[in-house]
From TrEMBL:
Location of the protein in the cell: Cell membrane
Biological source species: Microtus ochrogaster (Prairie vole)
Family per record: Belongs to the G-protein coupled receptor 1 family.
PANTHER family, A to Z: OLFACTORY RECEPTOR (PTHR26452)
Gene from which this protein is expressed: LOC101993139
Listed PROSITE patterns: G_PROTEIN_RECEP_F1_1, G_PROTEIN_RECEP_F1_2
Statement: the UniProt record of this protein carries the keyword Iron-sulfur: no
Bilayer disposition of the protein: Multi-pass membrane protein
Pfam families the record matches: 7tm_4 (PF13853)
Alphabetical UniProt keywords: Cell membrane, G-protein coupled receptor, Membrane, Olfaction, Receptor, Sensory transduction, Transducer, Transmembrane, Transmembrane helix
Name this polypeptide is given: Olfactory receptor
Transmembrane region(s): 40-63, 75-95, 115-137, 157-175, 221-245, 257-277, 289-309
Domain G-protein coupled receptors family 1 profile: 58-307
Keyword Transmembrane: yes
Amino acid sequence: MATIGTPVYLKVGARSQIAKNNYTDLVDFVLQGVSGDPGFQVFFLAFFSIFYTMVVTGNTLIFMAISLNPSLHTLMYFFLANLALMDIACTSTVLPKLLKGLVGKGSHISYKGCLTQIFFISWFLGAELMLLTAMAYDRYVAICRPLHYSMLMSRPVCVLLAGTVWAISAINSSVNTGLLVRLHFCGHNQIRHFFCELPALLLLPCSPTTLNNIMTVLADVFIGVVNFLFTMISYSFIIASILRIHSAEGKRRASSTCSAHLMVVTFYYSAIIYTYVQPGSGSSMENGKVVSLLYTTVGPILNPLIYSLRNKDVKVALGKVFPCVC
């Protein structure tokens, strides 16, 4: 068995082809982790264990409360239930492996495991960004076109929107992960991150990554920038509509409906766009660790609090389903 931190090699394909290319491909990679200081291991282990428990518990409670309470079977809560699932899946893709490394079970990850982690993290993050856009459109219709809400945001339309979000993000993730298969990793196997993330992995190949970089930027522009613009356009109409409301109470209620969503949108888009558009330098990758913690750990904790636990209807539903919670 190879020692952690030592490159491990695997011959791929016919021997003649290997001789021709004069390289072998890596079997596994070594994740650098959150910090190289062993003195912080116990702290980070406790920190991430608590955070992972909070993410899974909070979002599971929200999902079950929405699913089991008929009064919450509305379109807004349908999107929130999808968001809760995405948060659980996103965090579960990253933190269990990180915790395993922190308890000394090994910081290495197999080649296939690394690609699998990249596929799922890209899928769930992309789906979450597009879902936030769908939620912004839902708020736009509810505030700016309330008389047409039942027609424009019918249940079939919402199911179609949610399904499209999951499908498009899965296709995007499949393309970017598939393009990684064509690359050859034949030298340095240290990933300067605490999980396999596309920008960090693209620093390692010994074959050209031009096509991968182009597709990554295109995906980021489509899923990140374009969706962000659609969200901002929706909110420009929402704000204009709120300003036309004469009642102070009406303005307050309309603003409270959208302020939480706008805050989460800004948080997620700024973090993820920074990560995937940043130049691949050492300092930027160190900063990227902090940013990645925001959208893989902090965001999934805040979402239940921002969207649901402050909501009176959700509190009542939680009290009915789980009497000991509320």
